[in-house]
From TrEMBL:
This is diguanylate cyclase. It catalyses: 2 GTP = 3',3'-c-di-GMP + 2 diphosphate. InterPro entries: Diguanylate_Cyclase, GGDEF_dom, Nucleotide_cyclase, Rev_trsase/Diguanyl_cyclase. GO terms for molecular function: diguanylate cyclase activity. GO terms for biological process: cell adhesion involved in single-species biofilm formation; negative regulation of bacterial-type flagellum-dependent cell motility. It comes from Pseudoalteromonas amylolytica. One of its GO terms (cellular component) is plasma membrane. Its EC number is 2.7.7.65. PANTHER family: DIGUANYLATE CYCLASE DGCM-RELATED, REGULATORY COMPONENTS OF SENSORY TRANSDUCTION SYSTEM.
């Protein structure tokens, strides 16, 4: 704790220099370990979605320290929902809650309590340390929000195109392999591109404002019909990409076709019926993101050729050897 400067300036600079959530978390962990010194045992519970809907979970804990007592009782285990409820009822100015064996610092963002830092009572912290801790947690949450907003499409709040490329590279290089390993069944990753059919007619007949509403509603339907661990992106104007793990291709097809049918059955305000076409591919055997996109694009092209409101797997295309001529139809 003796390392604390009056405002934690170096730590602040460290946190705001991070440009990925992963390095931001590591930086916060390092900062807390340094800040709390040898005596500090901490656990950080946080909801990364930056929304009240998600219950915070254990995101970080102190490294190389005794998190259990001699009887192997966890020192910092907390019952999250009631503690959260209690923190939410606290006045905004209250920055520290003293409980029997722990101290809790709420982490707020835009007036919401999104998580908290739990410190064991053995952690020896001078009074000035708490304000530095609060400051550091504030910087963390704001930097996280900045990173998240930079990854989002402003109209739909889906992940944006830049994030798509990064995610495909991560998956293709095995960085998301933990999910596949943890599943009881073997999982494969698939990438689908979905395009709203005859969208030009929507704009031409109803105007761009209604067109944007259609895009927004399709985005919401896609997002709410895939699981939390799947990724839904706004790929371009009226195009979306979905990246998700699945046991096998037939199941991936059934999932996508179910969502296609659901959108076709939804009544859109003013416009009425809207359909989407999709093409999808397994994320394997390609060197570049562009190769996967090209394959899904060709499958999507087939869905359009077959009359739209269809899903096509790249593996089902007969003439895979022929290069796709992008001039045939403009998809992107
Ligand atoms: N309202 C709105 N329109 C967009 C946006 N982005 C692209 N568009 C429009 O989407 C339309 C896409 O039209 P096309 O690519 O010709 O395709 P389509 O009419 O959907 O026909 P198919 O894809 O062949 O079924 C164009 O008129 C674009 O101007 C957007 O963000 N908002």
């Amino acid at each position: 704790m003796e390392k604390i400067s009056s405002c934690g300036y170096e730590w602040t600079i460290g946190l705001i220099s991070q440009n990925s959530e992963h390095t931001l978390d590591s930086c916060l962990a390092n900062t807390l370990n340094q800040l709390l010194g040898d005596s500090g045992i901490f656990a950080f519970y946080f909801s990364k979605s930056l929304s009240v809907q998600q219950t915070p979970c254990l995101t970080l804990a102190s490294t190389g320290k005794q998190l259990c007592d001699e009887n192997k009782t966890a020192l910092l285990e907390v019952d999250v929902p009631p503690l959260l409820e209690r923190l939410r009822k606290l006045n905004q100015d209250v920055q520290l809650l003293n409980l029997a064996h722990i101290q809790v610092l709420p982490v707020r963002y835009q007036g919401l309590v999104l998580g908290f830092l739990v410190l064991h009572n053995q952690s020896i912290i001078p009074t000035s340390g708490y304000s530095v801790l609060n400051h550091i947690l504030n910087v963390y949450v704001h930097q996280l929000a900045t990173l998240q907003y930079a990854r989002m499409d402003p109209l739909t709040q889906l992940l944006n195109r830049q994030t798509f490329d990064e995610k495909i590279i991560d998956i293709a290089s095995g960085k998301e392999a933990w999910l596949v390993r943890e599943s009881k069944q073997q999982l494969h990753w698939y990438m689908a591109i979905a395009d709203i059919d005859l969208f030009k007619h929507v704009n031409d007949n109803y105007g761009h404002v209604i067109g944007d509403e259609v895009i927004l509603l399709v985005a919401q339907l896609l997002k709410s019909n895939f699981r939390a661990g799947d990724y839904v992106f706004r790929y371009g104007g009226e195009e979306f990409a979905i990246v998700f793990p699945c046991e096998h291709e037939a199941k991936a097809m059934a999932k996508l076709d179910g969502v296609r049918a659901l959108i076709a059955d939804t009544r859109f305000p003013q416009v009425g019926k809207v359909t989407i076409s999709m093409g999808f591919v397994e994320l394997k055997d390609a060197a570049q993101v562009a190769d996967f996109v090209n394959r899904a694009d060709r499958a999507l092209y087939q869905s359009k050729q077959d009359g739209r409101n269809k899903v096509t797997a790249y593996s089902s295309l007969k003439d895979k050897q022929n290069n796709h001529h992008s001039g045939d139809i403009e998809l992107f």
